[in-house]
Known about the structure:
The structure holds 2 protein chains of 2 kinds. Chain A has helices spanning 15-24, 58-61, 64-70, 105-121, 167-173, 185-190, 196-200, 206-221, 232-246, 249-252, 299-308, 315-325, 327-331, 335-351, and strands at 3-13, 39-45, 49-52, 73-76, 84-86, 90-98, 134-137, 140-149, 154-162, 223-227, 260-269, 272-281, 284-291. By secondary structure, chain A is an alpha+beta fold. Chain A is globular. The relative contact order of chain A is 0.16.
Amino acid sequence: MSGAWRLLVDDGVGAAEGLALDEALMGRYARGEPDCPPTLRLYSYRSHCALVGRYQNLAAEVDLAACRRTGTQVSRRLTGGGAIVMGSGQLGVAYVDRAPAGERPREIIEKLSAAIAAGLAQLGIAATFRGKNDLEVGGRKIAGLGLYVDPADAMLFHASVLGDLDVEFMLEVLRIPAAKLADRAAAAVTERLTTVSAETGNRHDAEMLRAAIAGGFAVSFGVTLEPGVADQTELAQADVLAAGRYRSQSWLSVRSVAEDASGSAVLKTPAGLARIYLTTHGDLVKSAMVAGDFNELPPAIVAMEAGLRWRRLTDDAIAAVVAGSGAADALGVPAERIASAVLEAGRQAGRSASPEPTGAAGPPEVPEPS
Amino acid sequence: MEQAGHLVVAGFPLALDRRYHVGTHMWVLLSEPGQARIGMDPLGIETSGTLAELSFVPVGTELIAGRPFGQLEAAKFVGPLVSPVSGIVLAVNDAAAIDAALTVRDPYGAGWLIEVSLSDAAGELPALLADPDEITTWFAAKIADYRRMGVIAQ
Lengths: 370, 154
């Protein structure tokens, strides 16, 4: 690939408006439209927006009361993945193009992730695409990723790069397992996430991060990026989508066939009790976290948590992840007992009722139509 | 994932009793005259990411080759299930829509996706791989490609 791509830059966008423009940009890449170079949009949301993945249960993932209290807007992405908080500290990446014929989703995600990793490398950060799910630095997530291809073959790749992160705020508005750990919640998150600020030791510089990521794409694909703007057709379509989809209750209320659920199990270790928390979607593990009285979270535990994500809850699959992670040595417990505890947490999740109460939450904070 | 009656190529089962669309990894198994069952081969499933959900267009929908007949949700991907043939949807696999793991466990059998009445069998079927040797060669080459690119496990 070579030539010039269109580069769009904008900041402080609302939840619905930001997602609507991303989708509107896909229009020129639909089957039957004339060929045109890809668009790369590097942007930030207003502080703050909570965005859930395509098929997540909004009320299960986001504390809607906390969102109303803090003025946090909410909406739902086209892409999959988990709930995220976006604001001035996080860089949104939207790459839009026609889906390349014959390329598989994992190939596409891997190539585009490599461009983001190349950008982070310009800041001295060695990020890797471990586990095929997220970009990580030393086992800690620094960017989330997602890919959507529409029925007309237009493609949207989303990423959220953590320039900086207000962990306390994230724990306030998102319902994540770490929030159950009370006084250790923030520590539990920072043991599993990292940011550009944390890695470089510098204050978050949004423009520097944006320039680095742009550079990563330019170098990886051998292209130049020409600053541009969304055209009138795209802006008009974005307005329609913001009102008709991204602010609509029907879109916010999308539920999937299999409900997300959560469960936990206790594991006795020589150092005391540890608890394994799982969030599941049907028979898949969506997230895993081990909480215990660790002075420092062992890397093997982080590896096991990462390995469990998006695994099916079968004896063989879980046993293989646990055995390969080194968690048995780290915890001083046979791998079989750890795997058994993971499966028990999964069974508990399977037995749990509706994921989180939704009735008392009331309507989410949605931006007023402009 | 090994199944009786299927070849295993570099760790992936391969059924040789059907045709394959190489761009989408969809298989087409002719059943009654003018009818076919469609599914996705295990390489297509694996390279989509961890499969989470499947949804299908309603029975009776007219399909066009190269256009969607449903949607796939995987760990990091949401996108269309693309039909390798044109026709009318006769049936969809509700069991796979309820439990996508069925398609992972048994991609050539109980994990089928839709059944179709073909509208252009003579025109479209020749474009699919049907020769067992060609299928095996293609499948092995794709596994090698995907492993080299790191998109499937070694």
